[in-house]
Structure formats: C-alpha cells, structure tokens
Design goal:
- Strands 15, 16, 17, 18, 19, 20, 21, 22, 23, 24 and 25 form an eleven-stranded mixed β-sheet that branches. Strands 1-4-5-6-2-10 form a six-stranded antiparallel β-sheet. The protein has a six-stranded antiparallel β-sheet with strand order 3-9-13-12-11-8.
- It is built from ten helices and 25 strands.
- The chain is of the alpha+beta class.
- The chain has three domains: 1-137, Thiol Ester Dehydrase, Chain A, CATH 3.10.129; 167-334, Thiol Ester Dehydrase, Chain A, CATH 3.10.129.10; 351-581, Alpha-D-Glucose-1,6-Bisphosphate, Chain A, domain 4, CATH 3.30.530.
- The chain binds coenzyme A and adenosine-5'-diphosphate.
- Adenosine-5'-diphosphate (ADP) binds at residues 188, 254-256, 258, 268-270, 285, 315.
- The site of adenosine-5'-diphosphate (ADP) has 10 residues, from strand 11 and strand 12.
Length: 583
Amino acid sequence: MSRHQNGEEYRNPTEVKKSQIVMPCHANHRQELSVGELLKWMDSTACLSAERHAGCPCVTASVDDIHFEHTIGVGQVINIKAKVNRAFNTSMEVGIVVSCEDLFSDSHWRVCQAVATFVSQRTTGGKVQLRPLVPCTQAEQVEHSLAAERRRMRLVHSDIMKDLLTNKAFQQVEVQEAEKAVPAERTRVESVELVLPTHANHQVNTFGGQIMAWMENVATIAASRLCNAHPTLQSIDMFHFRGPSHVGDRLVLKAIVNNAFKNSMEVGVCAEAYQGEEPLRHINSAFMTFEVRDREGKPCMLPRIRPEPLEGRRRYQEAIARNKIRLDRKYIISCKQTEVPLSVPWDLSNQVYLSYNNVSALKMLAARNNWLLNSEKNKVSLYTLEEKQVLSFKVETEVDIPAERAFMLLSDLSKRVEWDPNYERCELILRVDDDDFLYRVVTPSIGQDGASNSPSANQGGKVQDFILLASRRPPCDSGDPYVIALRSVTLPTHPPTEGYNRGEVLCAGFSILEVSKNISKISYFNQASPEVLPYISTDIAGLSSSFYGIFCACNTFLQENRGDHASTPQSQPPSSTLKSTQL
Ligand code: COA
Ligand code: ADP
C-alpha cells in the first residue's frame, strides 16, 4: 500500500473488498469451500468494483484463466479484493485477488488471482462509453499497461483456439485404447436451472458468477463419475459469456469428461438458455481441469477414458491440444521473466503467449521506478537498474520525428544494420502476423547492445547469431507508448550452426512516446543476464562511449528516413516447415 504525500494510505477508488467466513453451507462433502460459491463471491465483488468506476450496471463479459492454488476449509475466512485495472471503451478489466485467513494461527495465503472483463450497460439498454482510469501508483501503472496486452490476447483467444484445434497435428492423435478405459458416456451430466430474481441483478441479468457456479457443479459431477472419488478443481480456462441471460430463463447445463490424462482430466461444460418455446441460446462453454488427491494431497492416477464416436473423439483430441496449450500458457505467462529460460521454443501454438510475454516483460521493465541516472551527454541519458543479479539499462532521448514514423522504422529490425554496428546481418525468417516477426541476427563481435554482448562472442574466432522474436504494438490509447519488444526464442528450423555461437537476449526493445506531433521520446531497454554482466558494467562505468555513439547513429538514421513511406517487414509467406511445426 503506498502513501499520499500527506501520509494517508492511498486506496484505489475502484477497490472493493469482501470478507466471508466459510460456513458448512458453503462447503462440499470434504468440508472445503465449494469453488462455485467462491466464483459467485469473486464475480459479485468484481462487478461492484466495475460499477464503481462505470457508475452504471455492468455484466461479466469474460474471465481469464484461473488456477486454484489451495483449497479452503470450513471456519477459515476468505478475503477478496477487486479493482479496475483499466477502462477501455465500454469494457473494463478488473483484477481479483483471493486470499485465505486462518483466524487461529493468524496466517494468510493466496488462493487465486483472476482477471475478469465487465461491460457497462445503460439501464435503458445499450453500452456506455467509460471515462479513462488514471493509474496513480507504480503497481497500478504496470497493471494498466499490461491490461492492454491481456485484452489483445483475450480478444484473439477464441480464433486462436479454433485455428490450433483444426491443426492437422492434433487431428492425427490416435485414441489410446486401454482395457479398463471408462466410457465417456458414463460421465455425461445434464441439469436444468430456473433463473430466479435472487440469481440476477436489479437489471434482471443473471449474474455471471451464478452461471459459473452452476457450470462448476455439473463439471464436478462429471469428474466424480470418472474417478468415483471427490475431485479437486485445479483450473478453469479463459471463457466468454456470449450472450445475456435473464430472470425466467431456463438454463440447461451439460458436462462430460472430454479426456483423462495421467493425473488430471478435462471436463467440458456447455450452458444454454431458453424461455418458453424459444430456441436454445448458447451462453457459455468452459473447460475445467480436475485432479484427485490422496490423503497426503498427492495427485492420484486416473483411469483412461473411452470417448464416444464422432463428437466424442473430436473433443478427446481437442482436449489433448488444449492441455498442451494450457501448460505452455501457464508456463510462459505465469513465470516471472527471470525464471523463464532465455530461449523458449517457439511454435504456432505458443506464439500468442510468447508475444504477450515479450511485450509484458518490456512494459514491466519500463515501468520500474528505481532507474538510476548513470550518465548524460547532449540530452542522451543512460540509466541503470540492478536487481537480483540482473543488470538492465535504458538509453533515452527526444528525437525530432513523429512517434509513429519512428515506430515503423525501428520495428523493421532488418533496417538496424544501417545504424547499429552490432548488427552485421539481419534476416527476416517469418512474418507471423502484423505484430510479430522472427529474425536471425548476426553480430560481429562483443558490443554494447545486449544482442551482441555475450562473453562467448568471438570465442575461437566465431561470430554470434540470435533468433529473436520481435513483437510490436501501437498504442492502445493516447498516452500509451509504441512498443517494440525483443526476446530470444529457439526454432527447430534454425538450430545453432557451426561457425556461430548462439547468443541469447532476455528482454530488450524500444518504447516510443509521442511528446508532440513531431517529437518523440525514444527509450531503448536491455536486460542483461548474469553471464554478460561484467561486459556491460565496464561499458556503463563510462570506459566506452559506444552507447552514446550507437544512439546518435540511430538518431541520424531516423532523421534521414523521416519522410520515407513506412513499410512493414516482408518475408516469404510462412514456410511450410514452420507452419507444420509440431504442436
Ligand atoms: N472478452 C472480453 N471482452 C470482450 C470479449 C471477450 N471475449 N468480446 C468482446 N469484448 C468487449 C469488447 O472488447 C468491447 O469492449 P470495448 O468497448 O471496451 O472495446 C465490448 O466487449 C463490446 O464489444 P462488442 O464488439 O460490441 O461485442 P459484443 O456485441 O459481442 O458484446 C458482450 C460483448 C460481452 C457485451 C456480449 O457478448 C454479452 O452481452 N455477453 C453477455 C454478458 C452477460 O450478460 N454476462 C452475464 C452472465 S450471462
Ligand atoms: P465443443 O463441442 O467444441 O467442445 P461446445 O460449446 O459444444 O464445444 O461444448 C463445450 C463442452 O461442453 C464440450 O467439450 C463437452 O465437454 C460439453 N458438452 C457439450 N455438449 C454436451 C452434451 N450434450 N452433453 C454433455 N456434455 C456436453
């Protein structure tokens, strides 16, 4: 909690808190809080936070992946905190943190974190344009900046899943015939609920949390039928409320186990609504992962599933694909930047998450408030930040060029050879989409740029090469910078080759902020891993002025190309080898 200058504790004006003692009526047969109950509390708390900012009723549009880290027992206290991270046009991202408190030992621990999107609605119908939310603290600034990145990811989520699931690599997965396999049919559940006023807000819209709770209930029944035990819900995949539901709706909830892995199973749930003779309306589909734990809390082996023909087999195969995707996503997104291995294998199934990781790492680095000004020359400033064996630096100056133009010029990495002596060659391997590009960069020798400053450079006369993912983002809103993020990835089609030392970039890139129509503030960031520390620190200590020299060359390059028509990096269409990369 930060403090105002007058010493008072700062509190985000949209923050809402809810505390609830877990009673037997909230618990399941194991005396643990039912996740459905928790989802209702989380949704209602988050909705009140959204309404606090919007000043009008709001409905749940979507909920991002949720991972439950602990179960909660009867008698313990649940503390929920929700606040709006960012307001877009009619929608807002709300961050929710759930912790548990043991009243007897006075201990607290985190149960889960979630991010939900709410859409504002006028009482007379129609959406409401929201006022922007201005972040006040550094933590709020980071969340505000990352919210734009998360929004981008969730809006493409369903298309990406569709694309990935139609990928041939998954369709070729054979159903494994196991002797003791449980027929999926045995786990099928169908249940109907009548939406009453208690399940809805004063606008008669059914609470999203209530629907989630009903979905969790049928999913738990399906999961229990597979294992003949009490399963524990581990995670819920990102989902979207496709359309509204109202008081008087009959909600039909259907669930079945789609596939069982060694220690976990995927249960799919579908929620549809109808009134009278009306056709069914699809409200929501969610995929939940359950496991079964023994008395010591260790996960148990699960029986295999025998899917039904056609739809069942399709879902069985798609569950395998989703399982791979969710492992990648959890790994890439939830890891702290310094915990992710430098070079993560890139493929189409994790592209969107690597891109998110790339941009969010740079945004988090840029938002740090403990940069130290190291030196300044002709208004070019060099800042450093040292933390946990990682040294980062930032070079910053104002350049006489429109921000968008600088963005176009700097995001085409192949042009960097024109101004950066550390870039000897730069080949565009693949234009993944409008925002993401894969490059191979060859650097001649140890330089000052993170891309070429590994101690192994020039070892035995070898030059270095790098496989880089460049992710670029225009501003989401006025006040946001343009961002170009760079990080190393590995590509099966481009293994290290003889004659080159393969170097790695942890996090680097540009942030370009429009100062005025023709002036941009350009910041270049680079985060150096421990192995390159001695090389950079020598440079930073002022023994070389190459930082300054390279930045001046960059400035000259921008000035000389100020008037050109911007172009996007072009490559061959995605090569077939890359497209068919194993998922
Ligand atoms: N996740 C998060 N936000 C989403 C989204 C998703 N999957 N899909 C759309 N949105 C956001 C858009 O980004 C947009 O936000 P912005 O105005 O800030 O840019 C906003 O929703 C409206 O987008 P629009 O393109 O008009 O989408 P739409 O007409 O499909 O409406 C909902 C989106 C969410 C309003 C609509 O699907 C809906 O009414 N869902 C049911 C909501 C509800 O009643 N929930 C309670 C339980 S049923
Ligand atoms: P998909 O079939 O592509 O998975 P749906 O939205 O149709 O998407 O369904 C989501 C999930 O809900 C399915 O994966 C399945 O697990 C479950 N489901 C759908 N229909 C039924 C049904 N009739 N009975 C039981 N479960 C169902």
